[in-house]
Design goal:
Layout: H1 10-20, H2 28-32, H3 35-54, H4 58-81, H5 87-100, H6 103-106, H7 114-132, H8 151-163, H9 172-194, H10 200-220, H11 225-248, H12 259-275
């Protein structure tokens, strides 16, 4: 392999990032950024990684992982400029953490299942927090769950935390019962608003309660609600595209068809999927 075709390494990426942030010669846009303005891009890149995985597109995954890695380097560069830490510190910290949290691989611990690994992981995390003083007396059990998580994911995280101390339903039937109860309360809030005795805030609160129970249902069924909803969104898109194509073949668009016609084409799409 010649010098011209030599593969780039993480060292090259760190150097590129430093060049982009160099005053006077760097990129004006990159020089204006800070942690807060870059954070949304970091989240966006993580979602694009998940999308590539969902589509089983390895070429896209390679590209999106690079974009996500660039985000890590970006944050590390800004931290280095502030004198807080640098990229090598990030690597060092995660390596130490992974070795420390896997004593069954790098130490003398022994586990027989992934469930035991989960328990070991949580125990070590709790010990780390105790040693660092992170678990303060006035800090609640749920305070460590980040607000930035998507709401369904955060719901699962909160419920899992509470479940570890016994605040959980023992089986799925009570969760379904609670879902029916919350759905009834939502219907009541809607009826109250329509009669003038309620308001939009009450409807939103009850709808949130219902979604929270639905998330708990997913947790008990060991389903990732975000993934399940993404699959449904993809299914909806696929079937609606069939409706659009069928109408386009007649020189029409959906807004030129009535609901009954679009419903017929939707069911046609469902039948075609069932046959394939």
């Amino acid at each position: 392999m010649t010098a011209a075709t030599k593969r780039k390494t993480i060292v090259d990426l760190v150097a590129i990032m430093a060049a982009l942030r160099t005053p006077g010669t760097g990129c004006p846009w990159d020089l204006e950024q800070n942690f807060e303005t870059i954070a949304p891009y970091t989240l966006e890149e993580a979602y694009e990684v998940a999308d590539a995985i969902e589509k089983k597109d390895m070429a896209a995954l390679k590209d999106e992982l690079g974009d996500l890695l660039f985000q890590v380097v970006y944050h590390a560069q800004m931290a280095q400029e502030d004198g807080a830490f640098e990229f090598d510190d990030v690597v060092d910290v995660i390596c130490e953490k992974m070795v420390r949290r896997h004593p069954h691989v790098f130490g003398d611990e022994s586990v027989q299942s992934s469930t035991e690994v989960d328990g070991l992981w949580e125990r070590i995390k709790a010990e780390e927090k105790a040693q660092s003083g992170e678990q303060q007396a006035d800090k609640g059990l749920l305070d460590s769950v980040p607000f930035a998580f998507p709401a369904l994911t955060r719901s699962i995280k909160l419920q899992n935390k509470a479940a570890r101390v016994g605040f959980d339903w023992p089986s799925i039937p009570p969760v379904f019962e609670k879902a029916r109860e919350e759905l009834g309360e939502l219907e009541h809030a809607i009826a109250a608003a329509q009669s003038g005795d309620g308001d939009a805030d009450a409807i939103e609160d009850e709808y949130g309660d219902f979604l929270f129970v639905v998330a708990n249902m997913a947790r008990h069924l060991k389903i990732d609600p975000e993934r399940a909803l993404r699959r449904t969104c993809a299914k909806f898109t696929r079937r609606f595209s069939h409706v659009e194509r069928a109408l386009a073949a007649e020189g029409r668009t959906p807004d030129q068809a009535d609901l009954d016609e679009m419903e017929r084409l939707w069911n046609e799409a469902k039948a075609l999927e069932a046959e394939s």
